[in-house]
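Box 3.1 A note on notation
Throughout this textbook, protein chains are presented in two layers. The first layer is the amino acid sequence; the second is a token string describing backbone geometry. Keep the layers aligned when reading.
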Amino acid sequence: MGRVSQLAGADVWGARGAFGRGTGLNIKDLTPRLPHRADSGQAKASDCVRVPVPDAAALRDPLARSCGVQGRIRKRRLLLRAGATRIHLDRVDGLGDFMELEVVLIDGQADAEGAAVAETMMQALGLADAERVAGAYLDLLPK
């Protein structure tokens, strides 16, 4: 697995508001984001568009009015790195503790290669048979 290191400034506590059912549109750390990924418990590609704006907090009200508010998640994230893999250790209010592996691919690298790296790391961590979560934290909250 190689050396694991903590990323500088990567112990964060924050909230994320999600707007519009099924869009994935959210504001995280005052930056609007529109992630695109399949809701599957298996390794999957994720493509996220980030849009820097001068006052992202000011977007919350118009987004809520036009798209509706799907919910709000509060979490603390410890971010580690092992090679090209970002390890997210999350403590989510009302849900508990989670781990996410994010393998950062280089240009030309196939999604299958990234999935293989993640699976190898899961085995090295003793988590090969761990339950996989599909969807977002917001989907896991009681309705």
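The mean pLDDT is 75. The chain has one domain: 4-129.
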